[in-house]
Design goal:
Blueprint (H helix, E strand, L loop, with lengths): L35 H16 L8 H4 L2 H26 L13 H4 L11 H20 L6 H21 L5 H27 L2 E5 L4 E5 L2
Antiparallel strand pairs: 1-2
Length: 216
């Protein structure tokens, strides 16, 4: 299956006669949500969170392996984006606002209206949070502020998820699934690199080169 595929939204005349969807109890209230301003602000929070790992480049420990650090972060973002895009195309779940008659028609029949599951914003937010907290703890295992980094990054990621629900863009289950995917990828990528180093596999990444070495 391609990572991204076109999903056909409802026709304009169909949205007025949509049957009530079968939803989990936790999802039912999301249909009433609609706030484009919160949706826009969630973009800003996500953008800030995705830039936050670059602040670690000020650390001497990160500067000594900046190429690998940036390469890993790139892997996290690309993997998260591809996986969430594939799931969205496969599930074709309508967003909450599709069932909300107070929402403008053009929104309810837009191309993105059928890409609710999973929340890409939340997955990327938790991917960035998980990556930064994991690498920070690896590089600063004795820093008493490492828990502040963990709480702060995951708190910001949680805010993104909350805003996606409140804005009417996603159901809570979309956000929960996105958070799980992002957290897993953000932790797994550094863990795989750590395991590779343990087995004698080393890779060095730079702006214009990539080298893989296996020490026997």
């Amino acid at each position: 299956m391609p990572a991204y595929q076109e999903v056909q939204p409802y026709e304009w005349y169909q949205v007025f006669d949509l049957p009530a969807p079968e939803l989990y109890t936790i999802d039912r209230g999301a249909i009433e949500n609609w706030n484009p301003e919160i949706a826009k602000n969630s973009d800003y929070v996500l953008g800030g969170l995705m830039l936050l790992p670059f602040a670690s480049l000020a650390s001497q420990e990160v500067q000594e392996q900046a190429g690998t650090y940036l390469f890993m972060y790139g892997e996290v973002l690309v993997s998260t984006g591809l996986i969430t895009a594939a799931i969205k195309g496969w599930t074709e779940r309508a967003r909450p606002y599709v069932y909300n008659n107070t929402v403008p028609l053009e929104e309810r029949i837009s191309q993105s209206s059928m890409r609710s599951f999973v929340s890409g914003h939340t997955a990327l937010a938790f991917g960035a949070a998980s990556f930064m907290s994991t690498t920070y703890m690896d590089l600063h295992p004795d820093d008493p502020f490492r828990w502040v980094v963990l709480a702060g990054t995951f708190g910001a990621a949680g805010l993104v998820g909350y805003m996606r629900v409140e804005s009417g863009q996603h159901f809570p289950t979309d956000v929960i699934a996105g958070a799980a995917i992002g957290t897993a990828i953000g932790w797994a990528i550094p863990a795989l690199h750590r395991e590779a180093r343990y087995r004698g596999i080393r890779w060095n990444a730079g702006w214009n080169q990539f080298r893989l070495v296996w020490d026997f």
